């Protein structure tokens, strides 16, 4: 593999990771709705997931999108 191919492969895997993080954020939103007593913990987890999403985008030169939109 060339350096460019490795970078592209890493970007594809990073994008896949971002997709999984988006799904986790959506799940945490459902947790908050279903079990309001967990709202504080769900919000904290959502913020952590959002930071991870953003960091992956920056680290792998991906277009960052606000997953909360």
From TrEMBL:
Superkingdom of origin organism: Bacteria
Protein name, as recorded: Uncharacterized protein
Species: Mycobacteroides franklinii
């Amino acid at each position: 593999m060339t350096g460019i191919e490795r970078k592209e492969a890493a970007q594809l895997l990073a994008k896949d990771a971002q997709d999984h993080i988006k799904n986790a954020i959506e799940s945490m939103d459902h947790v908050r709705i279903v079990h309001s007593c967990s709202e504080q913990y769900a919000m904290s987890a959502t913020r952590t997931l959002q930071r991870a999403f953003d960091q992956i985008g920056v680290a792998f030169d991906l277009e960052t999108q606000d997953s909360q939109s």
